[in-house]
Amino acid sequence: MSGKPKIIIKDLNLHFGKQHVLRNVTANIPEKQITVILGPSGCGKTTLLKTMNRLTDLYPNVKLDGSIHIGNDDILHTKKDITEIRRHMGLLSQRPYPLPMNIFNNVAYGLRISGRKSKKYLKPRVKHYLEMANLWEEVKDRLHDSASSLSIGQQQRLCLARGLSVDPDIILADEPTSALDPLSSEVIENKFVELKSQYTIVMVTHSLQQARRIADYVIFMYLGEIIEQGPAKEFFNTPKQDLTKKYIKGLFN
Amino acid sequence: MKKSKLRNAEELFFRGVMIISSSVIGLALFLILWSIIKRGLPALSWDMLTQTPKGGFYFGKEGGIANAIVGSLYLASGATLLAMILGIPVSLYMNVNLHKRKKLVNSIRFLLDVMWGIPSIVYGAFGFTFMIYFGMHSSLLAGILTVTLFIIPIMIRSIDEVLMSVPKGLMEASYSLGSTQSETSYKVFLRQCISGVTTAVLLSFGRAIGDAASVLFTTGYTDHMPTSLTQPTATLPLAIFFQMSSPIAEVKERAYASALILTVLILFISIIARIISTRYQKHKIKI
What we know:
Chain A is an alpha/beta fold. Chain A folds into two domains: 1-88 and 169-253, 3-Layer(aba) Sandwich (Rossmann fold), CATH 3.40.50.300; 98-167, no CATH class. Chain A is built from ten helices and ten strands. In chain A, the strands form two sheets. In chain A, strands 6-7-8-3-9-10 form a six-stranded mixed sheet, with helices on both faces. Chain A has a four-stranded antiparallel sheet with strand order 2-1-4-5, covered by helices on one side. The radius of gyration of chain A is 18 Å and the shape is globular. Chain B is built from twelve helices and no strands. At the A-B interface, helix 2, strand 6, helix 3 and helix 6 of A face helix 7 and helix 8 of B.
């Protein structure tokens, strides 16, 4: 285990109705590193990510056991307001979902709902976050255009800026580059590497290459279970499980 | 070879059916408009629009139906406004707060669809019994309440239908920024569906202004300009009805003129609503 753990997942089990989706998941996600959750489609990696900010609440018939500690809170059993907890995490989804408003308001939204509404405060903040997401130069003259007028790669960066604007400690990303062209993907990847000095990043991917490029810590899942986890170097160079070896060699299925 | 011939014939047949049914609908619309315009336009005058019925109006003498125009606008706007105030939160609640309870929401949808199907005369009769119970006279207020009741299922279900198409990812995006359910409802879902809301308002307004049966007992009729919520009020559909049932030819012609006014009014409101909706639709996220 390298680095201090930021998210501590213990004996996590999740059922969708009768379907047992996550089985005894236990993992420590290190602080200020990029943790990649790797695995073939349908192995439960997205579901695991969504339990971390309790988006699983939005699905019917979900049964969750175990615990996820972030800081001092077990977010699965906390009495704290879940919206408060979600504010400490940014989310990037598989394809970007900008909010139905203009570019400026997309970034300002998170700040506004947490009570910071003055234009004087918002303007420099919005600029700052758009710069952080490498988008400012492209949109500075069209801040009042609709977010849906941006290209999909730009939209994903807008979503990143929006996610950063609520000042999270954690960035959750669910295959954030799967809908993007190679160039936009690279921008997002580089940005993640840059951002990890300030944020704990958890990214789901099914791309081995991507995991090799940016991961510090890897969690490999198969059929709802964690098969192997460890620092990226160890994971890729000296995998311990047969299943992992096969997956890394691309011999899966 | 044989098979492809059969497929071609099938294609031809359905295309024929499509063309025929579209033309029938188009023709019907055209004939309705044509008969209203042909018979109504000559009888239409400035007086029709600006005067209330004078002494001899129902015998073909001077006067107009300004009272019914104003009354109908009051009635339909009032009812549409009330239905919006009640309907928008209900449809948002169904799609955001009750998001997980599919069965419950589907039963609500079923009940609303049944309510949509109830003939307006039934709402009229229901409103009437209610009025008697409370000792109310027929009045603009009673009419507004009754019409609200009968356009509310239309309002809720048409908004609901567009809210259903909001992608789950947008909901997750909103929550993951730390929005509450009501912020998700009013700042995200409602904005995404603004054009659907406009359509719903339009549909409801059209039904409200065009319905005669529900206002027959509840709103009553009068020859005066409406000035108070508690007074009986004239409406266009009833104005058409009363004039149409007159044996005097000139009065009958005026019924067509009134129908023309009603049609143009609805057309006018549709156009305004479309303009508003395209103005606000530009931020909609395309999926």
